[in-house]
Write a structure and sequence with these properties.
By secondary structure, the protein is α+β, with helices and mostly antiparallel strands. The protein folds into two domains: 29 residues; 111 residues, OB fold (Dihydrolipoamide Acetyltransferase, E2P), CATH 2.40.50.140. Helices cover 36% and strands 29% of the residues. A five-stranded mixed barrel has the order 2-4-5-7-6. The radius of gyration is 23 Å and the shape is elongated.
């Protein structure tokens, strides 16, 4: 083998190693990527089926039902509501009417949460959830003004 062919073989081997490493990193990144969706987006079928994602909004008043460690409740963005089921211990700050972010998958119209996070004080809300609640409130106002009959 000539020195030129050795250099080409080494260069091609290096490119192959870098390519394989890049593919592994991108695959790991893709499998750990979790998107955030609101109840309105879930109702519009924008959420992925069979993939883990985050659901955020407010816990509907009177919707929390406990059966041992199994808990069911509803999350709303004031426009749409999604039922949630969770098996485990909820955070101490979890309360009806307060903000919540749940991570899990949507199965047959019910969000099966693997993890539930409650907001940690009165002033904090994830930026995506705050924006979604604001947009839902604006949409509700527009819908209410268009439904008012005129004489």
């Amino acid at each position: 083998m000539t020195p030129r062919r050795k250099r080409i073989a080494i260069a091609l081997g290096g490119v192959a190693v870098v390519g394989a490493a890049t593919a592994l990193v991108l695959n790991a990144f893709q499998s750990n990527l979790v998107f955030f969706y609101t109840p309105t987006q879930i109702a519009a079928k924008e959420a992925p089926g069979g993939r883990t994602f985050r659901l955020g909004g407010l816990v509907v008043e009177g919707s929390v039902k406990r059966d041992g460690v199994n808990v069911s409740f509803e999350v709303t963005d004031t426009a749409k509501t999604v039922p949630v089921q969770f098996a485990g211990i909820l955070p101490d700050l979890f309360k009806e009417g307060k903000g919540v972010v749940a991570q899990g998958q949507l199965e047959n119209g019910v969000f099966q949460a693997k993890e539930v996070l409650a907001k940690h004080d009165e002033n904090y809300m994830p930026p995506e959830a705050a924006e979604a609640l604001k947009n839902a409130a604006i949409a509700n106002q527009k819908a209410a003004t268009t439904l008012v009959p005129t004489k």
